[in-house]
Amino acid sequence: MDARVDSRVPEDIKKKAAEELAKHGMSISSFIRVMLSSVANDGLPKYWGIPNIETMASFDEAVDDLKNPKLKGATSYDELEKLLDE
Prior knowledge:
By secondary structure, the protein is mostly helical. The protein is 60% helix and 0% strand. The chain has one domain (11-85). It has 4 helices and no strands.
């Protein structure tokens, strides 16, 4: 019996990934199957580092900020300079 794998990603990321994978004849499900099978059989690819606790905390903070922005944004260089000077 197959096991189900669930993951939450922003809708725009899912859409972009689905479009890119479709160009190569793949679905998100098939891509996840290929990647998980590869990791299960061969381990993580050599070009992937295994993040430490601090790196994972940074990822979590970035995801949290994307969901609920706490930082002010700037639309011009001058506005950015003013924000940085605060």
